[in-house]
Design a protein that fits this description.
Layout lengths: L7 H18 L11 E5 L2 E4 L4 E4 L2 H4 L8 H13 L10 H13 L3 E6 L2 H16 L6 E5 L8 H6 L3 H4 L9 E4 L4 H7 L4 E7 L1 E2 L5 E2 L2 H14 L2 E5 L13 H5 L12 E4 L10 E6 L19 H16 L2 H22 L4 E7 L2 E6 L4 H4 L5 H11 L2 E2 L1 E3 L3 E4 L7 H16 L4
Parallel strand pairs: 3-15, 5-6, 5-7, 7-10, 10-11
Antiparallel strand pairs: 1-2, 2-3, 4-12, 8-9, 11-12, 13-14, 14-17, 16-17
Bound molecules: pyridoxal-5'-phosphate.
């Protein structure tokens, strides 16, 4: 991080003024870290004190090409001068082109555009309800420790009690079974079941990838029982694992390219920081949500579609997916060697591509002393050292960097991580 200039006191009071506005006027749904971010460039962020950080959080897997990418900024500005908004009562060229682009990366089908991950999942849930409606089937089975968003359907679908607390009654028709457990899933199917919804790699649950046997087994189960297989790709999708969708990465060594879910939700990295989500629906179900069944004012807005199309163009042109796979594996290898060097500090390293979780040991005295969960105490220490990461659960620290992170930046982050680990050796 760079030296702080003479305006330190002024800057400190600026940070205080900003946090004070939040305390007075912003609903406190987030436990925020004491960082006031002012600007970003690539994988760097600067706070209001002028301190520089290396960003391995990526806005929680959002800034797919880093901050303030010049080509994206140009695209947004040019589109802003042409057309910002157009109702979905009409056609715009980029929405059609973007849908075509998404379909070309998955399989034949159609795309519904929305504005967030929760909404992308809402569309999957409504699709499943509509598909089962005539037969009175409506139940959706999801996994323990999953995360599917904060709307009422999203928290009902999420397999974590803490997101449901205080909001009952829940939307009925959801049950949860342990992840990567085919038998548990098969045992939970009832005559009322219509769909299974899983993340290919659980994100909020601590970076847990599905196994290839699990994915193939779920497809078989769904085919046997007439269920839709729905995948939440909000965090693990959009090239994060080195392929467009995580199942393509998980199954790449299997020689079986026929696996396909019936629906996929996307958001986070899709707009690179411009808010947007989408729901891909397979050919079989692509026309089920007909006129009047679903909608959203801002879905597929000209600004969002122009930006997302540009992101696809850059990713394809610069082979950013291969970079995510390569640099991601380099990060994983680096963390694994830190684990063997400091087994008393690191319990496990899990991940694929640019979606990596480092689970810390439970009883590190210097983290315990902080009185906070180890994940949060570690993230705070990393902030002090100039690296931004994301906590996950009580003990896991996540790396979700930009997909175009360089090898040099990866090494710099690993060295900050190691130096911070060293301060924990007591
Ligand atoms: C972030 C996330 C969501 C919710 O997305 P929002 O844009 O915050 O509504 C849903 N599912 C998964 C897997 C996520 O990581």
């Amino acid at each position: 991080m760079s030296a702080v200039d003479t305006s330190t006191t002024e800057a400190a009071s600026k940070a205080e003024a900003i946090t004070s506005l939040y305390e007075q006027f912003v609903v406190p749904t987030y436990g925020r870290f004491p960082l006031c971010i002012e600007r970003g460039e690539g994988s760097r962020l600067w706070d209001v004190d002028g301190r520089r950080y290396l960003d391995f959080g990526g806005g929680i897997a959002v800034t797919s090409l880093g901050h303030s990418h010049p080509e994206l900024a140009d695209t947004l500005a040019t589109q802003a001068q042409k057309l910002w908004h157009c109702s979905n009562l009409y056609y715009t060229e980029d929405q059609g082109k973007l849908a075509e682009k998404i379909v070309s990366h998955v399989a034949p089908g159609k795309v519904f555009f929305n504005n967030s991950g929760a909404e992308a999942n809402e569309a999957l849930i409504k699709l499943a309800r509509k598909a089962g409606n005539a037969e009175g089937r409506f139940e959706i089975i999801t996994a323990t420790n999953s995360f599917h968003g904060r709307t009422m359907a999203g928290i009902a679908a999420t397999g974590q009690d803490k997101v449901k607390e205080g909001f009952s009654p829940m939307l009925p028709g959801f049950s949860h079974v342990p992840f990567n457990d085919l038998e548990a899933m098969a045992g939970a199917v009832t005559p009322a079941t219509i769909a299974i919804l899983i993340e290919g790699v659980q994100g909020e649950g601590g970076i847990n990838p599905a196994t290839s046997e699990y994915l193939l087994g779920l497809r078989k189960l769904c085919d046997e029982k007439g269920l839709l297989l729905l995948m939440d790709g909000v965090q693990c999708g959009f090239f994060r694992t080195g392929n467009f969708q995580s199942f393509q990465s998980i199954l790449s060594g299997q020689g079986d390219q026929s696996f396909l879910p019936d629906g996929i939700s996307m958001a986070k990295s899709l707009g690179g920081g411009f808010p947007m989500g989408c729901t891909w629906i397979s050919e079989k179900y692509q026309d089920l949500l007909g006129p009047g069944t679903h909608g959203t004012t801002f879905g597929g807005t000209p600004l969002a579609c122009a930006v997302a199309l540009k992101i696809f163009e850059i990713i394809e042109r610069d082979d950013v997916a291969a970079n995510a796979a390569k640099v991601g594996q380099h990060l994983i290898d680096g963390l694994l060697s830190l684990q063997s060097k400091y087994p008393q500090l690191i319990k496990t390293v899990r991940g694929m591509g640019m979606m990596i979780g480092t689970q810390l040991q439970a009883d590190i005295p210097l983290l315990k002393d902080s009185g906070r969960p180890a994940s949060i105490a570690m993230v705070l220490k990393l902030h002090e050292a100039g690296l931004i990461t994301i906590p996950s659960g009580p003990a896991t620290v996540r790396f979700l960097p930009a997909l175009n992170l360089t090898m040099g930046e990866a090494d710099e982050g690993l060295s900050i991580f190691e130096n911070t680990l060293k301060t924990l050796l007591s």
